[in-house]
Write a structure and sequence with these properties.
By secondary structure, the chain is α/β, with parallel strands linked by helices. The chain contains 12 helices and 10 strands. The strands form 2 sheets. A 6-stranded mixed β-sheet has the order 1-2-10-7-8-9, with helices on both faces. A 4-stranded parallel β-sheet has the order 5-4-3-6, with helices on both faces. The longest helix has 17 residues. It starts with 8 loop residues before the first helix and ends in a 10-residue tail after the last strand.
Amino acid sequence: MSAETPITPERISRTEALIRPHIRRTPVLPVDMVDFGRAAFPVRLKLECLQHSGSFKARGAFSNLLQRDIPKAGVVAASGGNHGAAVAYAAMRLGVPATIFVPSVSPKAKTDRIRGYGAELVIAGDRYADALAASEAHVARTGALSVHAFEQVETLLGQGTLGLEIEQDLPDIDTLLVAVGGGGLIGGVAAWLAGRIRIVAVEPEGSPTLHNAFAAGEPVDAPTEGVAADSLAPKRVGSLMFPIAQSYIERSILVSDDDIVASQKALWDAVRVVAEPGGAAAFGAMLSGKYQPAPGERVAVLVCGANTTAVQF
């Protein structure tokens, strides 16, 4: 990785100190695969699904709002839902106006959160790319500050704080499984860990953004389909994260929609953890056997989002 990258451990550490008063330190849950009907094997789940706004995205949102100059027009974000909810939450906490653009595929659980945090919600098009284009037009018209879900230095620095936290909580792990959409989360985490822990990407078969980028040697357009399309299906991974991925991510594993849904159900049935499809994708690689750990390998899985109404009360 180029030494010129702005996503450095030093900057991540400073960002962590800045946003720490505004974010939760999320818990680690030790489980055994025997609890899920598989061969006995210990795994640690990092429950970032319990973060403010329901996903890891709160880290990047606060990083942006606390490190960038915010105009009177406030902030604007395009999102499948989680990033928008996080920006809306951070804006509410910091007293900043927010306008959030989402595609029609965004689940009600996420759009309700955005509205509940007091942001203006705009539904624009059917996919994330449509919402992004609409948000860019809004920025040009109003002068609001754009907070990108993954193609923004401050976003990656914020998500990188999760890597710092995981290493503090789990200093002995060998491998970390992380779901990928645009790559802001795995890029930030990998920039912090810098090869000290094996990082394996997990992606839906219907939206293999990083998988296709690895094959092409650069970010390229990928399909945007599948059960996790609201959170893991931008057109392509970010150009900021890709050099980091090339340096520090071992490989990408593809999981099916059935794997993801089975993971959601298993997490709820066995340990009463609620995860949305994107949040359950990484565990789907373990549950399906598509990631096969070596004997004695110490594995952690990031459960990164819980904005779903799949569990009804």
